[in-house]
Amino acid sequence: MSGFRHVVVFRWRDDATAEQKKTVEERLRELPGAIPELRAYAFGRDAGINAGNFDFAVVADFADRDAYLVYRDNPTHRAIVDEVINPITAERHAVQYVLEP
Amino acid sequence: MSGFRHVVVFRWRDDATAEQKKTVEERLRELPGAIPELRAYAFGRDAGINAGNFDFAVVADFADRDAYLVYRDNPTHRAIVDEVINPITAERHAVQYVLEP
Fold first, then answer.
1. B8-67 pLDDT, tens per residue?
2. How confident is the model over B63-84, as a mean pLDDT?
3. Residue B1: per-residue pLDDT
4. Min distance A37 CA to chain B CA atoms (Å)
5. What is the pLDDT of residue A100?
6. Which of B55, B93, B99 sits opposite A9 (nearest CB)?
7. In whole numbers, what is the pLDDT of chain A averaged over residues?
8. For the complex shown, is ipTM > 0.85?
């Protein structure tokens, strides 16, 4: 299916607590209901199979680039990033790319 | 849909050529035909919207963790990693996670 995908991986700070990590997931679950442009949204904790992995990933699919920008700049999303994600993030790397049909 | 997802993002070396980057994509296109366990496979170059992004992402979906391991260890896949991905990779970060239904 064609579209536009946002991929982001996080390494949490060593001092991030279990409660803080759980709060990230709870808050992100608000977003599909708040942002109709989110066509698919799936995040999760690393399964622990491979050494050296990051801790958490988010993959969000949209109809197109403009729909992604709505998500990126959505105030509820920005609040979650500022309030619960940034405080425990050690490293973050992202890619957005076109989904070929 | 439940399942298991592999997410990986790459930053290419500054001296990676356009030809090398194109070869990565051409070779990765072989994999869905070679690995039946690959339920969905979508990779792409960063769209250039956000400063500081990585260069390339791969998202691969599987029925479960065992199917992911088949992909990870598949000889064709390993050859692509060794021959065309590793030589141009400056940074690579991955997460595997369970897809909730």
1. 999 999 999 999 999 999 999 999 999 999 999 999 999 999 999 999 999 999 999 999
2. 98
3. 62
4. 18
5. 86
6. B93
7. 97
8. yes
B75-84 in b/e burial notation, b at 16+ Cβ within 10 A? eebeebbeeb
Res A28 pLDDT > 80: yes
CA distance B21 to B45: 9
Q: Look at residue B24 in the predicted model and tell me its pLDDT.
A: 98
Nearest Cβ partner for A57 among B7, B11, B43 = B7
Half-sphere exposure of A16 (CA within 13 A, CB side): 21
- Decide if A62 contacts A4 (C-beta within 8 A): yes
Q: Do A49 and B69 touch (CB under 8 A)?
A: yes
Residues of A with CB under 8 A from a CB of B: 4-5, 7, 9, 11, 42-47, 49-50, 53-57, 59, 65, 68-69, 72, 91, 93-100
Contacts of A6 (CB under 8 A, 6+ apart): A58, A59, A60, A61, A62, A68, A71, A72, A94, A95, A96
Residues on chain B touching A96 (C-beta within 8 angstroms): 46-47, 49-50, 53
Instruction: Identify which of A47, A56, A97 has the shortest CB distance to residue B44.
Output: A97
Domain housing A48: 3-99
What total number of domains does chain A contain? 1
Q: What are phi and psi of A43, to 5 degrees?
A: -125, 165
CATH classification of the domain holding B33: 3.30.70.100
